[in-house]
């Protein structure tokens, strides 16, 4: 595991402490959400690209499944 750091204003640090917020947990969750969001966006772009190339009536679910299978193999 590695450590990352960020500079925040003093008043924000005080508010975090006052609200008993686990900063590490919030940061981990936010980063996971961002990773998931970006992966979904890339998958959506991949699907749209495939749809344009294979415009023969293939359903979106089939394309998404094929892309996921390919990624899991790598």
Main attributes of the structure:
74 residues; mainly alpha; 73% helix; CopG family transcriptional regulator; coiled coil
Explain this structure to me?
The protein has 74 residues and is an all-alpha fold. It has a domain at 23-73. The chain has helices at residues 10-18, 23-53, 60-73. Helix 2 (23-53) packs across helix 3 (60-73). The relative contact order is 0.07.
Low-confidence stretches: none
Main structural class: mainly alpha
Any idea what the shape is?
elongated
The mean pLDDT is: 88
**H/E element sequence:** HHH
Helix content: over 70%
Straight-line N-to-C gap: 23 Å
What profile does the largest beta sheet have?
A: none
Give a count of the beta strands, DSSP E runs of length 2 or more. Answer: 0
Please tally the helical runs, counting DSSP H or I stretches of 4 or more residues. 3
Tell me the strand percentage band: under 5%
Protein name: CopG family transcriptional regulator
Keywords: Coiled coil
Coiled coil: 33-60
Quick summary:
The protein has about 70 residues and is mainly alpha-helical. The protein has 3 helices and no strands.
Furnish the topology, listing elements before pairings.
Elements: H1 10-18, H2 23-53, H3 60-73
